[in-house]
Specification:
316 residues; alpha+beta; 6-stranded antiparallel beta barrel; 3-stranded antiparallel sheet; 7 helices; 12 strands; 28% strand
Length: 316
């Protein structure tokens, strides 16, 4: 009996586990039904907001205040809504917080029964794509909220995540930028070959990870630090400077830039450079998210001012 009592959990351990379970349930209840005071908090450098799910519509060009041409990629939101707030307690008792989003309405008849129940519980229409974004505990968004393009402020930087365009089986010159063999003397019908790939009898094999011909593209790719140039709140369009991975009409994930927004904000906050916490021209970010209700008090098109001098004025 003494041995069984020693192996059994002690009352203090059971009490701590009950307390942990109780606090977890309370936090989850607050997350699923956040109060208005909790959702009206202000953005801080330690806050991590949710991202958005958008569709890549293609590339075009716009002209800034100085008349310089800027190539941009047009991203459009298609009824991006919050489907769930996630709170998970890890084995080390730290908490994982995330917001689950769904975008692009789909017919009910093409949705599985399991996902129908999931969307019915969130009071939203069935969606083609569902993704979750890790956040901080203060950035939860009420379930059923419809997000808008105003979530990203013109002038800030974003990271865009998508699957790159698949190019099939390609050789080493296109896949790894190999120089190839000589184009004239001493080479016979092998100008674009990879050349030698192994060593002598020892080790007698090709090392794993050797750059050789293979499938190119079709991988999850992240393009970092793309500036937001313009936002159209009427059509839910986000104009991002530069190229974005993926084919046209593909779904992409857009989030606040980790390097030029989050890390830089924390560093400047610690140094006391409060005016440099956000990029130049950006006063604040919608927190916890930019919703459709915010659009009513904003102009239909918001454009970031040019951050450069006029390229047509000669320098002294």
């Amino acid at each position: 009996m003494l041995r069984h009592w020693a192996l059994a959990p002690r009352p203090q351990q059971l009490l701590s586990q009950c307390r942990q379970f109780s606090t977890t349930r309370i936090a989850l209840a607050r997350t699923l039904n956040p109060s208005p005071s909790a959702t009206s908090t202000k953005w801080t450098p330690n806050s991590i907001r949710t991202g958005l799910i958008a569709r890549k519509r293609g590339m075009t060009a716009i002209w800034d205040d100085h008349g310089a041409r800027v190539p941009v990629t047009v991203l459009q939101l298609e009824n991006c809504q919050v489907t769930k707030n996630i709170v998970h307690v890890r084995p080390d008792r730290t908490e994982y917080h995330a917001v689950q989003l769904g975008a692009s309405d789909r017919p009910k008849r093409t949705t599985t029964h399991q996902m129908r129940g999931h969307f019915r519980k969130a009071h939203v229409k069935p969606k083609y794509i569902v993704k979750e974004f890790p956040i901080t505990p203060d950035a939860h968004v009420p379930v059923g909220t419809t997000l808008s393009a105003i979530h990203f402020v013109p002038g800030q930087f974003v990271d865009v995540i998508a699957d790159s365009i698949g190019k099939g089986f390609q050789g080493t010159m296109k896949r790894w930028n190999f120089k190839g063999l000589r184009a004239s003397h001493g080479v016979s019908v092998s100008h674009r070959s990879a050349g030698a790939t192994g060593q002598h009898q020892d080790p007698g094999r090709v090392w794993p990870g050797k750059k050789m011909a293979g499938r190119l593209g079709g991988e999850r790719t992240t393009i970092q630090n793309l500036p937001v140039v313009r936002v159209d709140t009427t059509l839910d369009l986000i104009f991002v400077k530069g190229a974005v991975p993926g084919v046209d009409d593909a779904h992409v994930l857009v989030r606040d830039a980790k390097k030029k927004m989050l890390c830089l904000a924390n560093a400047n906050q610690a140094k006391g450079l409060y005016e440099s916490v956000l990029p130049k021209g950006v006063d604040d970010l919608p927190f916890p998210a930019g919703t459709k209700e915010m659009v009513q008090s904003l102009p239909p098109v918001i454009e970031a001012p040019s951050k450069r001098t006029s390229p047509f004025i000669p320098r002294e």
